[in-house]
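[step 3/7] fold_predict: job queued, chain A
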Amino acid sequence: MVRRTKEEAQETRSQILDAAEHAFYERGVARTTLADIASLAGVTRGAIYWHFSNKSDLLQALLDTLHEPLDDLARASESEDELDPLGCMRKLLIRLYHQVALDPKTRRINEILFHKCEFTDEMCDMRRQRQTHTLECNLRIGLTLRNAVHRGQLPENLDTVRGAVCIHAYIHGLIGQWLLVPDSFQLHQDAERWVDAGLDMLRLSPSLRN
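[step 4/7] structure written:
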């Protein structure tokens, strides 16, 4: 009976997340209420509060679902024992571009984050979470770059802190621009070339040297 109750709770949570994803995508985060999500999910507002503290918490749970498929590859590129950290990063980014362009769920959630989420007072927790996430991403990328320098894949005098910020901004900007005007360029067909262009910046830019 306990197992069934846990399974039912998980099913309800999944229903809420699915409803939130579609509501945020159609109406934007600011114009979507928890009552809207409850109605779409076929649950009460109380059921939403059982699983999520507020709308910011709900949106963060949606974003967390995007990280799972790529975590293993990300951890490998950050490991000092990885012999090909830059190759791992390359595979990670190519897969990321493919997922954004070809997987409807990944595309919708990214579009919500990039273009349908306003950091209003109601979403101040989300803003803080995004700030923390951005800084953590820069640190993780920097670790991969240092491993790549150690393996001789990047220049010894690469400024890995500045390089991490640059490659992160490049990835973020490329995805954001494609989501806004997807017909302006090919993201998944040219994924390898887009990734290699970013890695070339790390290898060749004099401005990224210490």
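[step 5/7] annotate
The chain has a mean pLDDT of 90.
The radius of gyration is 19 Å.
exit 0
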